């Protein structure tokens, strides 16, 4: 079986129900979601399965959900049935709350880094934020776009931030605070990343 089709050699790609240019904002958005998924896969290879079983289970679920998001965005057919719902968002919120409670007290912004896994999760987080920005642009330019994907990406960036902090904490590696940051986080239970 050949994996190349040559159908994209003129700068277009196939959607579910049509074709479009490869630099179309829709393609940019689900392509960025694929990038997030790849970095999550990398993070999973860097997490010790004996101490991160719960996080690894979360991340595998998230990988499937990101495929659902991408598939929904690639669907421009007249009979669209979207896979994504708000249910995964609600489940993720519960996990975020658990991880935030486990992580050390946060008062200032932190620098991305620490363990390899934490650094990779921070990369995934920032790419998720880019995907969300692209999603907002897509929603402004096209009418029938599943807005649940934007909400999912918004929550996913919070999850990845919390997971990165736990990745450091369980390995007993301290986060590095941004030195010129004021104490910006008053309520640890509602920690949000910068720009949220």
CATH superfamily: Cobalamin adenosyltransferase-like
Instruction: Please identify the top-level CATH class.
Output: Mainly Alpha
Main β sheet profile? 2 strands, antiparallel
CATH topology grouping: Hypothetical Protein Ta1238, Chain: A
Give the CA-based shape.
Answer: elongated
List low-confidence stretches. 188-195
Report strand order across the widest sheet: 1-2
Overall structural domain count: 1
Count of DSSP strands: 4
GO molecular function, one term: corrinoid adenosyltransferase activity
Family: Belongs to the Cob(I)alamin adenosyltransferase family.
Pathway: Cofactor biosynthesis; adenosylcobalamin biosynthesis; adenosylcobalamin from cob(II)yrinate a,c-diamide: step 2/7
Protein name: Corrinoid adenosyltransferase
Kindly describe this structure.
The chain is mainly alpha-helical and 196 residues long. The chain has one domain: Hypothetical Protein Ta1238, Chain: A (Up-down Bundle), CATH 1.20.1200. The chain has a two-stranded antiparallel ribbon with strand order 1-2. A two-stranded antiparallel sheet has the order 3-4. Strand 1 and strand 2 form a beta hairpin. Helix 1 packs antiparallel against helix 4, helix 3 runs parallel beside helix 5 and helix 4 packs antiparallel against helix 5. The C terminus is likely disordered. Pathway: Cofactor biosynthesis; adenosylcobalamin biosynthesis; adenosylcobalamin from cob(II)yrinate a,c-diamide: step 2/7. InterPro entries: CblAdoTrfase-like, CblAdoTrfase-like_sf, PduO-typ. Keywords: ATP-binding, Cobalamin biosynthesis, Nucleotide-binding, Transferase. Belongs to the Cob(I)alamin adenosyltransferase family. Its EC number is 2.5.1.17.
